[in-house]
Amino acid sequence: MNIIKFLDQLSFEGGSKEDLEVLSSRREAFTKLSGFSKKMAISAIPTGILASMPGMLSAKSSAENTMEVLNFALTLEYLEYEFYQKASESGVYNEQKVVFDQIKDHEEAHVAFLTETINAMEGGSAVAKPTFDFTGGKGGTGPFDPFNDYAQFLALSQAFEDTGVRAYKGQAAKLVSDSMSNLILTAALSIHGVEARHASMVRRLRGQKGWITGEDTSVPEAALAVYQAGDPADQFPSEANVTQAGVNLEAAFVGNVPNIDRDSIQEAFDEPLDANVVMGTGTVYDIVGLFIVPE
Amino acid sequence: MSKIMKNKSGIWSPEEMNNQSRRKFLAYSGATIAISGLFLAGCNNDDEDNMRTVLNVDSPTNLSANRNSSGGIDLSWMDNSDNEDGFKIERANSLTDTFTEIASVTEGVTSYTDSMDIDSTTTYAYRVRGFKGTVYSAYSNVIDVDGEEPEIANLGTGDIAVLNYAYVLEQLEADFYTKVYAAFDDGSLSAGGETETILTDLYKHEVIHREFLRAALADNAVPDLTFQYTEGLFTSLDSVLATAMALEDTGVRAYNGAGQFFSNTDAGRQYLTLAGKIVSVEARHASAIRDLLNPTSADFAGNDIINSKGLEVTANPVDILPVAASFIVNEIDASGFPSGGMVDTQIAMP
C-alpha cells in the first residue's frame, strides 16, 4: 500500500497527494543562522546563541531512516502497552482504573498506528514484539513486582512515560524531511505530547510535580538513567540541564527575571535521550532492555 | 424620606438602607445596581411596574478599549439593560485626570470610536454608564489604553517565522500567568494547595519560555505584544483554570502542528528539537490543568483532543492565530510563514 494513500485514510485533514506535494515543495533553504548572532535582548546572554549547539543530527531522511525510527518507537509502545495490559489484568491499578485504562488504550492505539504505518511504507516491515519480563529478571527472578505492588507499578509507569517523552524527542529531528514524511513527523510529535500528558498525570498521582525538576531519583535505582544524561551528553543532557541553545539560562535569568530560579529552568525544558536506532543500542535501549528477555 | 446610605466606594447602595426605604426601591434586583441621585420624590409608590422601569438601569460591563490602526480608540461594552435611553462615554486624559463626558450613544449601541487627536505618549482611561432620562446606571469598569499605536507583529519568513509563531504564543501564556500570579500576590484571587502551586509553576515556566525565545530571536523577534482579557477574568479561579486549559491545549496543538514547517537543514532540525523540549512541558501543563478541573478522570488526555489512533489533534497557524487574536491587540502578519501553514493539513478528530 502506498504510504500516502494510507495516511489519507487516517484522520488527517487535507492529506491528499496534491496537498502533500505542495507541502513538500514549500521549504525554503535556510543556510544561515541569520539573526542568531546578533545582539541579545538580555545582556547576560552571550552572542552566537546557536553557534555552540551540540553535534548535528544526520541529514539523512530516507524512508529507511524513517522506518527505523518508527520501529524504535513501536518497540517502546509494545513495552508500554504490554505493561498496562498485564497491570490491568492483575487489578493492581484499580485504585485509578479510569486513568490507567485511558493510558492503556492510548498505548494500544499507538502500537496499531505505528504497525500500520510501517507496513504501509514501501518495503516497510514492522518489528516483532519482544518478550518482556517486567520483574526486570530477563526471564529469571528480577527485583520488581509491579503487578502486585501498586507503588512499584506507579514508579515504573512514570519511568516508562518519561522515557517515552525523551525518546520521541531524541528522534524527531530524524523525521524532518523535504518529502512525504511531514505527516509522519507530525504524528510522532503528537504521540510525544500524549506521552507527556500521561507522564504528568502519573507523576502527580505519585505526589510529584507533573514536570521534571533535575535528575529525578524517585524511580528504582535501575531506572535512574531515565533522567540522566545520554550519549553524547552535550546533545542529550540530563534533566538537570539549564543550558539551552548554548546559553546558560540560570546565569542569564536568575536574579534578572523576577521569581525565576534554577528549579523552574530545569522544569521548563524536557531533554531528548539517545538511541541508536540502527544498532539497537543507546540509553533508551539500556532502559527498555532491562525488561526484554534476550532471544 | 428615609435616609439613603452611601457605602465606602461612594455608590448609593439600597442594601444598606432600612426596610422602609428598601420598599421604595421596589425593583432592586442585585447588589451591583447603584442608583444615582435622589429621584424618589416624584415616584408613585403604587405604580410598581413603572418604578421598576424608572429605577433600574443595569450598568454596562466588559468595557474594552483598543488603539485602532486609523488613529482612533475603539470602545466596546456589554449592554445589560433593556430600558436605557443610551450610554454616555467618559474619558480621562491621563491616569490622574478626572473623567469628562465625551459622547452619548443611543439605546442598544455597544461600541464607540473616539477619533480625537491621540497623543501617542498618553495613557487614556474610559468608562461608560447607561442612562434613562436623568437616571444613570453605575459605571462600567474603567479601562486604560495607551495612545501609542500597536506595532504590527510580522513573523518574518522561514524558520524565523515558525519560531516567532511560538514566541507569540509564549508571550500570551506568560502574560496570562503573570497576571494570575499578580492576582495571587495582591489577594484578588486565591486558590491554595496544589492548584496555586501549579499555576505559580506555570507562570515561571512560561516566562522562561518567552524570555528564552526573545533572546534566541534577538533582532528577528516580534515586538512585545499587548494583550486584552475579559473583564473580571483574574478574580475568578474557574475562569482562570478554563482559560489556562484553552491556552495549554492550544499551545500543544500549535507546536505539534508547526514542527513540520521547520526547514530540512541543520538549523531547522535543531529548532525542531528545541521546540520539542518546550512542547512536552506544555503537554504536562495541559494534563495537570485538565486534572485540576476534573480530578482523576480521563480528561488529562481526554477523548476530546486525542483521536482513535492515540494521536492528539494538531493545528496550523491558519487556525491558531484567529483564536490567539482574541487576546492580542496587535495585528499579526503571518504572510511570510512557510506556505503550508496557511492551509489545513493536520491531525483531526475523531
Description:
The complex is a heterodimer of chains A (295) and B (350). Chain A contains nine helices and two strands, in the order ααααααββααα. Chain A has helices at 3-9, 17-24, 63-90, 97-120, 150-172, 182-205, 249-253, 262-268, 283-289; strands at residues 243-244, 247-248. Chain A has a two-stranded antiparallel ribbon with strand order 1-2. In chain A, a hairpin with a 2-residue loop joins strand 1 and strand 2. The longest helix of chain A is centred in the first third of the chain and has 28 residues, at 63-90. Chain A is globular. The two termini of chain A are 31 Å apart. With 350 residues, chain B is of the alpha+beta class. The radius of gyration of chain B is 25 Å and the shape is globular. The termini of chain B are far apart. Chain B is built from seven helices and ten strands. In chain B, the strands form three sheets. In chain B, strands 3, 4, 6, 7 and 8 form a five-stranded antiparallel β-sheet that branches. In chain B, strands 1-2-5 form a three-stranded antiparallel β-sheet, with no helix packed on it. Chain B has a two-stranded parallel ribbon with strand order 9-10. Chain B has helices at 19-24, 48-55, 158-186, 193-217, 237-258, 266-293, 317-325, and strands at residues 61-67, 73-78, 86-92, 100-106, 111-114, 123-132, 135-139, 143-146, 153-154, 332-333.
